[in-house]
Design a protein that fits this description.
heterodimer; A: alpha/beta; Peroxisomal Thiolase, Chain A, domain 1; nine-stranded mixed beta sheet; two-stranded antiparallel ribbon; 14 helices; about 20% strand; B: alpha/beta; 2 domains; two-stranded antiparallel sheet; 16 helices; 11 strands
Chain lengths: ~400, ~375
């Protein structure tokens, strides 16, 4: 069922998500890494390898950004790799950390994710103008809001979903984020606020979208032997999954993320999860837009296709509901420094399973949690299943 | 006991320019060759695909988007390593060693001819606050390093030039090489002084090409191939991104990576146990500096060995029999894959005119170029 070695998470670190004009990306990495090491009770010299996750170089404006961030991430004179799968990077980075340890190659791995979007002038959205095919799509002058509006429209149309059903996600997540000390946009809002906010590209409105941000997050992964020595409370990485769909997003039916299902099935198989809605106690699906939380709950097989808005309306996905979804506040509430936001979700599951989530702690005795991120051109899914 | 092997290789290029192939077609052609070589169907026989690329070199913000279709990896488990192909090998190697995956495909390519401003892109890798504002061509860093290396080791400019003569000559026997030539020591020494004391012919020229490899677990390898090339170990290391604090005389990253891989591969005396080495030679002096870091000779000895012909293809310790980057061309993130390709072909006995007789253990090394201090080393063998 497991690799040569079972892999445990023993520490997590997270910076404030904001426009961090005073800090360089390296400094953000340092802050998150230091917090994770302190939480694990470890020193940097006990770390044998480092994995970096960070999204487009164009944000920071540095070619080979991974190399640039190496010292801030504690990789000085250490084996160091950067992995990159677009928006899916944040949750993918600990998967790479997992195989560094599960292979038996290392006993410990520091996993760091960083994003500094504010340095991109005039707006980080401009870095996304070059994610499109240069011949077929770029000449249309499209941006991310447009293509996600297409996807949202298709999802709503296929299942007959109303905008109110989707707006509830934004209300819930921004509300949850009020309890998160790192959050950028925690707020008490109503469904009407969302429906009355500025229209960006129909049906996407201002409050349907997560904010750009700067930040970093980190995890310490260790082998089973080391974990037993240093903590009574490890959280195990029991399932990992990832999947990519075709580049040609225009040729796919956007109502359902097949690639997320494929990634989830891989992770569930490894973790021995047979009935996800019953066995998963808490989940952090990727929510850069409110409809994406619903879309991803379905892709993760946490409910039937088209059923996620109903669960949300019934309060099932609230922190005190049967299946708490994004108790952290998600990207909509905490903020969306791409890779750092993905890893923030894994940090949240780690804290929830350890009972260390403070005011955000979900009731009961959560034993199994899941985090997921989504990336590239609506084509990438990365999933991690954690167990206490 | 070896657990991971190369069971399929495919290469297109390397050529100064391949205008008839887009980067997608380049990847497709190399992949088809590798899949045919391994006898696998990518749609059902591959567990994980690993591609290696950097955004700025591709002209995209998220290059990972554009790789699955041409590799046959749609709705399959693929990811991108932002690094050299050999770093991809390190990850593929670990994936197989987890015991969860049997077959992994590894890809890296260069479409350098699409880049109108390669040097400006490289300049963008310099620290944006401390170094980039100084301006100038980024290879000045290599000139400074060469100066320091020559000063500290008493290596001569002639010995560096000899590396170019040897590698370009080796490349004449390599159908995958873009820049093979029979040149003289004087021609190298008289070529333009670019970044003192680095001369024009001592700098590798970019080339287009793609290398795809199929890796397999022991169980799968024995089924798929009758001459698997075993990966004895991979080591990798990043020293520091700060030019101000890096070691200018020794390649510390490569030394630490070598120590890591020699430990895994149980190599105690590299000079004796390694039959031939494919070493990064982006600049001629780098081959010498890297040989020393890899413990293939003592500190300051590499120049002398080169002058004496020991590193020639028919010498005692052949270094870069492929022609190296100076002869094959600088393949950007595929640079390490050029090295890995040659090691695999030599160990399979398929290196044609450049075959080294009785080669059993080969070493492939990559360095990520200016201004990085990331080195990766792999040791391979045709004996399990």
């Amino acid at each position: 069922m497991f690799g040569k070695k079972r892999v445990a998470i023993v520490g997590a670190g997270l910076t404030l998500f904001r426009r961090r004009m005073k800090e360089t990306g390296k400094e953000l990495c340092y802050e998150a890494s230091k917090m994770a090491l302190d939480a694990a009770g470890m020193e940097l010299n006990e770390i044998q390898s480092v994995v970096m996750g960070t999204a487009p170089d164009a944000f920071d404006g540095v070619h080979m950004k991974g190399e640039y961030l190496a010292d801030g991430s504690g990789a000085y004179r250490k084996p160091y790799t950067r992995v990159f799968v677009g928006g899916g990077t944040g949750v993918f980075t600990p998967l790479a950390g997992w195989w560094h340890v599960a292979s038996g190659q290392f006993d410990s791995c520091l996993v760091v994710a960083e994003e500094k979007m504010s340095s991109c002038y005039p707006h980080p959205q401009f870095a996304f103008t070059t994610i499109f095919d240069p011949i077929l799509e770029r000449p249309l002058g499209m941006n991310l809001i447009w293509i996600f509006a297409l996807e949202m429209n298709r999802y709503m149309h296929r299942h007959g979903i109303k905008k109110e059903d989707i707006a509830r996600v934004s209300v819930k997540n921004k509300g949850n984020a009020l309890d998160h000390p790192c959050a950028q946009l925690g707020a008490k809002i109503t469904v009407e606020d969302v429906l009355n906010s500025e229209i960006m590209a129909w049906p996407v409105q201002r409050l349907d979208v997560s904010p750009t941000s700067d930040g970093a997050s980190a995890l310490v992964l260790v082998s089973e032997d080391v974990a037993k020595e240093i903590t009574d409370n490890p959280v195990w990485v029991d399932g990992v999954g990832w999947c990519i769909d075709s580049t040609l997003w225009t040729n796919r039916d956007l109502y359902y993320p097949d690639y997320v299902e494929c990634a989830a099935r891989m992770a569930y198989k490894m973790a021995g999860v047979k009935n996800p809605p019953k066995e998963i106690d808490v989940a952090e699906p990727y929510d850069p837009f409110d409809y994406k939380e619903l879309h991803h709950m379905e892709g993760l097989l946490l409910c039937k296709k088209g059923e996620a808005p109903k669960l949300t309306a019934e309060g099932v996905t609230q922190r005190d509901g049967d299946l708490p979804i994004n108790p952290s506040g998600g990207l909509l509430g905490v903020g969306n420094p791409i890779a750092a936001a993905g890893l923030m979700k894994v940090c949240e599951i780690f804290w929830q399973l350890r009972g260390e989530a403070g005011k955000r702690q979900i009731p009961g005795d959560p034993r199994t949690g899941l985090a997921q991120a989504w990336g590239d051109l609506m084509q990438y899914g990365s999933v991690i299943v954690l167990r206490r | 006991m070896s657990e991971v092997a190369i069971v399929g290789v495919g290469c297109v290029g390397f050529q100064p320019i391949l205008p008839e192939l887009s980067y997608k077609e380049l990847m497709y052609e190399a992949a088809v060759k590798a899949y045919e070589d391994a006898g696998i169907d990518p749609r059902k026989d591959v567990d994980v695909f690993v591609t290696c690329a950097e955004d700025y070199l591709e002209g995209f913000s998220i290059f990972d988007e554009f790789v699955p279709d041409q590799l046959g990896a749609v709705l399959r488990h693929l990811f991108t390593v932002s690094g050299d192909g050999l770093l991809g090998l390190a990850n593929a190697y670990m994936l197989i060693k987890t015991g969860h995956f049997d077959t992994v495909v590894l890809e890296a390519h260069s479409k350098a001819s699409d880049l109108l401003t390669l040097m400006d892109v490289i300049a963008f890798a310099l620290d944006p606050v401390l170094n980039r504002p100084l301006g100038g061509h980024p290879y000045y860093v290599a000139g400074m390093e060469m100066n320091r290396y020559l000063h500290d080791t008493c290596t001569t400019v002639k010995q560096c030039a000899q590396v170019v003569v040897k590698n370009k000559k080796n490349a004449c026997g390599n159908p995958y090489a873009a820049y093979g030539a029979n040149i003289t020591l004087d021609q190298v020494l008289c070529s333009d002084m670019c970044f003192y004391p680095l001369k024009k012919l001592e700098i590798s020229t970019p080339a287009d090409g793609c290398v795809v490899m199929v890796l397999a677990s022991k169980k799968a390898a024995e089924k798929l191939s009758d001459k698997p090339v075993w990966v004895k170990g991979v080591g990798w290391c990043t020293e520091t991104p700060n030019l101000e604090t890096k070691d200018w005389s020794k390649a510390v990253d490569t030394r630490l990576a070598a120590e890591m891989v020699y430990k895994t591969a149980k190599i105690h005396n590299p000079r004796k146990e390694i039959d031939f080495a494919e070493v990064n030679d982006l600049f001629a002096y780098k081959e010498l500096q890297h040989m020393e870091a890899l413990k293939l000779c003592d500190y300051g000895e590499a120049g002398k060995l080169t002058e004496e012909g020991i590193t020639a293809r028919n010498g005692e310790l052949p270094v870069n029999p492929s022609g190296g980057l100076l002869g094959m061309g600088y393949g950007l993130e595929a640079s390490g894959m050029e090295k890995l390709l040659e090691v695999a072909l030599q160990l399979r006995g398929e290196a044609g005119r450049r075959q080294i007789l009785n080669a059993e253990v080969g070493l492939a090394h990559a360095w990520r170029g200016i201004p990085t201090t990331t080195g990766i080393v792999a040791v391979l063998s045709n004996v399990k």
